[in-house]
């Protein structure tokens, strides 16, 4: 059983969650979690330059969070105490 299916079919009380992810493969999990639980924030990498013109582009998870209406944050450094 996939994680997305397990989260979608879960019964019981909802949880308050902070989601951390970046790649496009994490977007279905984010959507499944928001359908069943209260996702209060999303943590992802900073916008990165892409393409020949080096246009700053958000990660797929940041774009999905904005579409869903969730606040997203970017840590200055993962190892900062």
Q: How would you explain this protein's 3D organization?
A:
It is a single chain. The chain has one domain. The protein is 32% helix and 23% strand. The strands form two sheets. A three-stranded parallel sheet has the order 1-2-5. β1, α2 and β2 form a beta-alpha-beta unit. α1 packs parallel to α2. The longest helix is centred in the middle third of the chain and has 10 residues. The mean pLDDT is 84.
Return the structural class.
alpha/beta
Strand content is 15-25%
How many domains, in number, for the residues?
1
Oligomer: single chain
Largest sheet: 3 strands, parallel
* Helix percentage: 25-40%
Mean pLDDT across residues? 84
Ordered list of secondary-structure elements with their pairings:
Elements: H1 3-9, E1 16-20, H2 27-36, E2 38-43, E3 48-50, E4 55-57, H3 60-68, E5 72-73
Parallel strand pairs: 1-2, 2-5
Antiparallel strand pairs: 3-4
Helix pairs in contact: 1-2
Task: Sum up the structure in keywords.
81 residues; alpha/beta; two-stranded antiparallel sheet; 3 helices; 5 strands; 32% helix
What's this, in brief?
The chain has 81 residues and is of the alpha/beta class.
């Amino acid at each position: 059983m996939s994680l997305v299916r397990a989260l979608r079919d879960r019964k019981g009380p909802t949880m308050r969650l902070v989601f951390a992810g970046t790649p496009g493969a994490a977007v279905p999990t984010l959507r499944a979690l928001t359908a069943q639980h209260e996702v209060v924030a999303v943590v992802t990498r900073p916008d990165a330059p892409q393409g020949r013109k080096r246009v700053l582009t958000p990660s797929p998870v940041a774009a999905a969070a904005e579409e869903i209406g969730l606040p997203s944050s970017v840590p200055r450094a993962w190892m900062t105490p």
